[in-house]
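Researcher: Quick one. two chains, 737 residues in total.
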Amino acid sequence: MMNKNNQGRRHFLKLGIIGSFTLATAGTLIPFFSRQLANPAPNYKVLRAHDIDFFHCITPVIVGLGKYQPHSDMETFFKALDDKLGYLTDSIKHQLQQIIDLFTAPATKGLLTGKFNGNWQTFDYENVEQLWGNWQTSRWSVLQQASSAISQLVLIVWYSLAEHWPAINYPGPLFTEQLVTRPNNF
Amino acid sequence: MSSVIKDIYTTDAARQWAIFDALKTSPKNRDFDVIIIGTGAGGGFTADILSKAGLSVALIESGPLQSSNDFNMNEQQAYQSLYQEGGSRTTEDGAISVLQGRAVGGTTVINWTSCFRTPPQTLTYWQDQFGLAELDSTTMSSWFDYVEQRLGILPWQGQPNRNNAILQSGCQRLGYSSNIIARNVRGCWNLGFCGTGCPTNAKQSMLVSTLPQALERGASLIYNCEAHKILWQDDQVTGVECHPANGDHQSSRFKLHARHVVLAAGAIGSPAILLRSSIPDPHQRIGRRTFLHPVSASFALFEEAVEGFYGAPQSIYSDHFQWPADQQIGYKLEVPPLQPMLATGLLKGFGQQHRQLMQQLPYLQCTIALHRDGFHPQSPGGQVKLRADGSPVLNYPTTQYLWDGVKQSLTTMARIQFAAGARSVIPSHSGAQLKKSLQATLQQLNQLNWQPHQALLGSAHVMGGCGMSAKPESGVVNHWGEHFFLENLSVIDGSCFPTSIGANPQLSIYALACRQAAHLSAKLGKPITLIDNDKTTQASERQGFALTQSI
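Model:
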């Protein structure tokens, strides 16, 4: 156990040193990498195709679904996430997209994760879990901030969906028959 | 899909009100006695009082108009549409999540209905440090009486839900003082969904109390409308430049004019408008000393169901640790509602441990500590700044003084939770584990890293940024909320507080707004009597105001 932790720490330190270069140059690299990927995916308002790939991979890890759970049907979640992102101010939306670009653009993804080949969907559940855990306590505040913010975003959207309430034994609001009404939509 | 509740904004009377959606239209009349920017606790009461006095009033609101028909106890819809920045507002470094309303009625639409008078210690501190001798407890008590009667504010008459009862029971067993919270509700259904907009109109928010009154008297309301900047020349304000909250800002700007402008856009919002307007600020006070009551949270698992998602969200509090004898930061203890979205937002961490805790949601209790910032040199608060696009952001450094307080409050909350019978306790921290004994919990608290992003810090109370003071060197406005350098500009909202309050701030904002608005009404030639307060009259006379201006 100790050995594994030490190994993890050494690996992490290496990433940290590389990460400093990455983060310092992110401002110039990101526009280059994200230029061709700026448009929302078909049927989405904000989420781009590579955002969806990224969230497809990290959401089961953040929610803690375990690797044997089927995660293929996440359409409702992505729609809710897209809806939520549509309400963010432009500057916050832009910051979030930059962070995802940092995590997903081939060169920066390789530097941050140690894996230059393949996209996030080819990563093992355990690898992503370890990576995400490391980032939560990273020396680099950008990684801490990014992983913390993305974790919170994923979790609040996930548990806002009624289809996920039975799993947490939440029965839903009371008196819905009397009180849930057609919105005014002024 | 039929409600037993009548939506105030769909009645025949409401169809006659002068309500404009800036995304679709704007008012033809562009001249008013007073423009009020913001419709929350400060703007609501100000509009009510000025319109009652016979002044023509326009209210500008950046958020949407939603009412009881829209409030369907849906966390997802509510947080993204009724809260600032889609419910994702944080401080600049992302360390503190800030829940703040953005709707007609402001934060009063989505707060948890807790009402406290401004603590006398806070008023004394303001007198000592900021020269605000006029705001003494005796003067303010008449205004608190007035608001409490107006909004039906009474100690909660029902049984506290179990989430609150655990706080009460733990405090009692340890000999800590606790008490019942007063709430601004009439005919509350005890649903627990105050934070997503009250579907029964029981909560006496500005949306159902002061604003309908003002609209009935002819006030104009323009919503989905951003106040870009205040127009001014020499020492006079002339109006406000606005634009629809979304869309093409440049081509759709329009101007409203008035004899007087009241800024009531809340802490963060009000200083931001002053900054965008390049209002004179020789002492660089605008946006500084902005406070948050930073919140820490401790979760506990109980054998019996807690069901913190149902029932009045807050009915018990403890001020036992609010005014410590030493110089440490004081904190108030309360509990939050625990619907899934808010519960997961409060519970730091991710992965399987987080999942296991969420799976036991009905058995989870959560206690929160609201730290009283702004009363110590090492608690200077934050600074509101403008991003490149002109939107505001709060830079709030987390000091060691605050982290010491967070560690202390988490220690206290764990003691209370175990005393009340908790099986296990976990502080909201990304590195924390559930612990089954107090000793193990305290040991863990000593071992964890206390720094941004790892420990939860949240806020639902933003205060300051346009602080009151006797002198322009240490504030933006005087004790009447009048700007020091522009004659016909007032700030009437939570941004005027020179420190945090040390209690949920809505009642402090209401009472101060009534006092300021009554004064302003007299100043504009329409005196109005709301309370019989000899003390206030005397205070006015001391300041050299004519008797007709006193109230």
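Residues 1-33 of chain A have pLDDT under 50 and may be disordered.
Researcher: Thanks, that's what I needed.
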